[in-house]
Amino acid sequence: MKKIYLAPSILSCDLLKLEEQVRLVAENGADFIHVDIMDGHFVPNLTFGPNMVKALRRITDIPLDVHLMIERPDDYLQAYIEAGAYILTVHQEACTHLHRTVQRIHQLGAKAGVSLNPATSLRTVEEILPDLDLLLIMTVNPGFGGQAFIPGGVDKVKRARKMIEAVGKEDFLLEVDGGINEETAGPISAAGANVLVAGNAIFNQPDIVQAMHNIHAAARSYQTVQA
Ligand code: DX5
Ligand code: ZN
Fold first, then answer.
1. Where does a divalent metal cation bind (predicted)?
2. Can 177 be counted among the known catalytic residues?
């Protein structure tokens, strides 16, 4: 059985309890902390900047999975990597010279990810796939936490997993983001996703640790049934 990584998204944290909640998930099975950066242009919402990444770096050793939902990401790669991003993911839709952007992320010392909006075809990353460490399939239109999972994501993840196998990439991270919860974690993991981002389904629950365990268990049990 392949490992399923959990990446709680701090977008749904109680910001006044940020440190406490990040420590809680870090000590109870989170593999990454997912940090959503929004600029009010690429997506209709605003969140954090490099200072947030720097602050998180001070309170946890867990790798920071930084998701840039911003225009002109090239202007900010260095700032986020110097702040402590372990994985830096840009949107295909925001990058004219995606190959150059990916090269630059690697040169700066981070893992490189590319994200696709729900309406963007997998074909747009076919050429760059061999150069990536992570592919992020959005299962909602990015911008907000707590939205409903778009069902077409399951088939897209299946096709993405086939493409990844075809280029022979071991330990590749196929991440899904948006509407992941106890119900959707199973089918999406069975389809081949191995990094599950979840915000609302973790931080807006009465018991954060239990919620994480339930998502993890759902993903694993579904894999067993499918095996
Ligand atoms: C959405 C963000 C997500 C968000 C997911 O634009 O990229 O990471 O936090 O939130 P949930 O899990 O609540 O759908
Ligand atoms: Zn995200």
1. 34, 36, 67, 177
2. yes
